[in-house]
Specification:
By secondary structure, the chain is of the alpha+beta class. The chain is built from eleven helices and 21 strands. Helices cover 22% and strands 18% of the residues. A hairpin with a 2-residue loop joins strand 4 and strand 5.
Amino acid sequence: MASKWPLELLLSSQHKPTDNTVLPPEAAKPPDSWSYPQAPPYMLNPLPDDRFRRQYRYAATYHPRDAPHLRDRYCKITMPPNVSQPQFVNGKAMLKSIPGMVKMEMGIPYIYEVSGDPGKIVTVGCAHTLESLQTYPKYAVIHQLVDELQLLTWGDAGPASSTPAVYKLPEFKRNDRSSRPLAGSYEGSYNLASTVIKGQGQGTLAPAVQTDTREARSQIGDILKILHKLYNHILPLSISADEWDILKYVMAENNVFTFGGGGVGPVGCQLNISSMDSGGALEEAIGGAQGSWHVDAGDDPMTHTLVTMLLRLPPGSDPGAFCLGRPGLYVRELNTLVVFLIFKGNDIHSGCAPCLDPSSSRDQLYCGFEIWEKEFSSQLQKPWDLTSAENRAVYVSYIPRAAFRRTSRCSVYSSKDVVFGNACDPVVGELERTQPQNYIDNGKTILGDSYDERMTRESMMQAWNMNVKARISL
């Protein structure tokens, strides 16, 4: 029997969407040998569904027999018309519908019914803004967390700076898939938590190498704690009770090394920084592997990714579309500074850069915080006005298959210090055979308050499994 959310957690069924059926606009003809995303019809449930906190969701039918056709189609995917560089009228972007795609309604989950069975569902996407979250009891908590995250991300650029923008921390390291912008640019992609190091078999789960000063550890650790809390507040508002229960069970059973805290949470965190303001693809800013259509093949297909997008744009600007290829959905909200998006990371997806009114003076584009001060703390005034050209910070909080299912090695400790147990083998480094970072020595910033519990459970589970394998009775 399907799980349902407790009645006290359900949003009032009075908040019903107005459209019972959502159809995509007519598709455009793609160039030869290419294809565009194509959304199916989405149908609203006629009666409240207690499997979702929102009680309403849009559903489409998915048949597994279609997988080969879809795979072929999305190996040739390209961006459809109208996704970027709109016309501006009086400083406001005039956004056109994207052919063949459905613009997501904020706060409403979009699901697949597998083989048309309403009892077999998978959530493929759900997006939120602060405005759409206002009807939930945790809205004030989420708003406060967003305020704190803005400050830790954009920093305090005043003359007596106490908190730099996180991407301006000394020796802040881009990841291997990032672009390599010109000197002086902060654009790029950065790992903040755990990563899967390639090289042997399924790889090795380990703490990502990142700047390691005391100030950096404190700032990055605080960011990870906030993102962990946001994941726990927003994901239950976006997926079914069954999907949430599975996450809770597997994460406890496999002692999944979540960042920022214990219980349910993401494992990996990628920060993408860009300053592009004329629309278009993001390859130049954050790299071709993640700035164009791509799948995050290492993500576990049972889990959901949370994108937390912080924007620093004048009102009326085009934030850039974020597109989900297989379900044919996209997010593109004007006049907001924060967007949350839940989706399957191993489904093909892509985003576009923001586009600002080209007729406006670039010297004035990043001022005018007073327009937003009703939404955000006045404490953000100084970093907003004094930060440089960066206008888009995207935190991607995800769960690798290697961590969720324990399909790879885990760098818990160094074999140089602990010579017993299944210590991680050395891996090939750039200059010599070296060992990756490990959670005992390098994991406190990442694991946060769950460090002691994670290490204790790991030690006990290892001892138990070894005794069982050796047929030793205690």
